[in-house]
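Lab channel / #folding
Pinned by the channel admin:
"Please post every new chain as: sequence first, then the structure tokens as a reply. Keep commentary short and put observations after the output so the thread stays searchable."

First post following the new format, from NK:
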Amino acid sequence: MSDGGLQRAREKMTEAGVAPAAIETFTRFYRLLESGATGLVREADVEPLPPLARAADLDLTYDEADAALAQTAIIKLNGGLGTSMGMDKAKSLLPVRRSAEGEDLTFLDVIVGQVQAARAATGARLPLILMNSFRTRDDSLALLAKYGDLAVDGLPLDFLQNREPKLTADTLEPVEWPADPDLEWCPPGHGDLYPALHAAGVVRALLDAGFRYASVSNSDNLGAAPDARIAGWFAASGAPYAAEMCLKTPADVKGGQLVVRTADGRIVQRETAQTHPDDLEISLDPARHKYFHTNNLWFDLEALAAELERTGGVLELPLIRNEKTVDPSDPSSTPVVQIESAMGAAVAVFAGATAIEVGRERFLPVKTTSDLLVLRSDVYELTEDCRVVAQVPAPLVSLPSPYKTITRFDERFPTGAPSLRSATSLTVQGDWTFGSGVVVEGDAELPDEGSPTAVPDGATVTEKGVVAAG
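Reply from TO:
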């Protein structure tokens, strides 16, 4: 490996105006990577998380809950471009539901609605602040501009996440890609929350404005609405940090989990990318590891400010080595390493960190068009307070490659999602376009017919395929 790889990467970041805290965080991870660190957390070195307190069992008065929410800010991670769905703008700008008036509502519209409803119900000021990337900022702020009363007490509506160079896998030098120089850069994972907050001065600004707590979640998870009862529990706990965890089901094959490190009894996070292949099966076993991480976090802002000031924004998070190609759409392009970290890994940084079990309604992420189809369907209803509420258990949907990008997906559902309320699963093979009024029932399947095929208007789809049409 080249001794100059790190120096060239630091120079590239400096020239691009990357924040010093982010450069130092990258440097720390680079040294770990250079030393051969993989960031793997082996099963032999951990124990499962013990049973957690349940949000459903909380015993709080409305006054206690509302008082805690009054001191809370909402931070949404909004840097994702939805590249896995063929997008080149913020995923949060995708339409996901329709209002009662027939207006398309994006993720951000629903999030704003949730915040405004919580303000109206509790009297909380409840700031909403986005962590944007350079490529999501302008469009996202343009959408928020139509909500003129959204900003609170002069607090910013957003701050910027950082970026870092992709490294060639064989030399760990910054990759060069003249065909599209933007592809030479990558986000540092959502662990970048900490240096980004430090660089922007957001935590100090919130404290100065009278806020004590922050609720942090992904903008593509509409289940993570402001919740006064969880805010009340967190405030009463006195913990510096808390994570929301859900009980695992057989469908939960991705995402992080909390485990107890046997060496010191500390709670740590293990992402899928930090799981050794030999440990993957047992890590997914709900009989051993009951919970998965929703990526919904709570922070005591005073504790967070103290740690950011102590470290200069460089928290000692575990390394995640992510191997890709420089052009994600071209598997033959140069192999690269992306240095990443997870924001949930800060559970090991804060002594006294804790967790709570929440219901599945707090976890509604959209990572694929299959997820999007369910969210747009009649499985969910949008309530007056902009919560997305399941009317029946969500079916498992599997769509093939013709549906992968949002453009092709929308072409195949020109009149919207079929009815999925009576479905337990939908497996599509081949290329089907759905007509209007289609109803899916039971464990439904559509076979590969070898050419594009239409599901007629008013048809019913079952395990036998298209069995009837009105």
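NK: The chain is about 25% helix and 25% strand.
TO: also worth noting, Residues 49 and 259 are 5 Å apart (CA to CA).
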